[in-house]
Specification:
Radius of gyration: 13 Å
Number of strands: 6
Distance between the termini: 18 Å
Amino acid sequence: FAPDATGRALCAVVASGPASRVSASLSLPLEATDGAISVQAFLRGEVVVESRFHANAVRQRWSWAATAAEVGSAIALPISRGGRIWAVFTIAAAQDDMFDAEVVRLLEGM
């Protein structure tokens, strides 16, 4: 995820396994991305973890996609470049609670 100059969210999705059914590239108005963990990570400038994606009321707008892709948990990691958030790297897993503190520390260190 990264916003373009017009304020639209540019998203490229690449997946494997059951989630591969949702591979796509899209451009959305930022207001249409409410609740998306990638957008939250970008706007906050911090890692966002969703341990039980399908059970979170804030994510209801995206729960259909998570269910279709068999996503249980996800993490969004902001990528900085030149002191600014440049993009967000998001990883999804089929299992709930996949991204514990140890995994978050590992991914943040990369």
